[in-house]
Amino acid sequence: MIHPLVEQLRFARSEFRRALEGVAEEEAIHRFLPMNCISWSVGHLAWQEQRNWLYRGQGLLNRPDVNERFASGGPASTPSLAEVWEAWREITAAADPWLDGLAVEQLAAPPERAPAGQRVLFSVGSLLLRTTYHYWYHTGENLAIRQLLGHRGLPEFVGNIDEAAPYRPA
Known about the structure:
Largest sheet: none
Helix content: 55-70%
CATH superfamily: dinb family like domain
Number of strands: 0
CATH class: Mainly Alpha
Oligomer: single chain
Shape: globular
Structural class: mainly alpha
Order of helices and strands: HHHHHHHH
Strand content: under 5%
Distance between the termini: 9 Å
């Protein structure tokens, strides 16, 4: 059975996607300083998923370009929305089988690979929580950008969590 925290990550991903339905390429690259643009946030979350689940979890770096272009603290950019969605889909699809197999013991343990020269003080479960919360942060930011772009009728609250990802004990 898939761990409830993995289900919550999947729900956060689906809400991130839902908040970006109907965004056009030219809108996705518009920056309201000092914020990054919408397309950058898609690439940035692809970077975090790749770092946490592919690299730290499995030693894989499927998309070195994402690693170079969208890391925290990296330079701002305005990438193509289609390009970053493709990278995001590729990375999350590669991560999902590993996430599906996580056991409670693995969630409590540190990841297999830590940043060079660093002692790991966090667990895989903490990374899962951090990534889920990171999605919610950028979902809100992207909806604010869409409001500034003049979009109306946007999602106003969390979607159907009661059916898509209800509480259940681990």
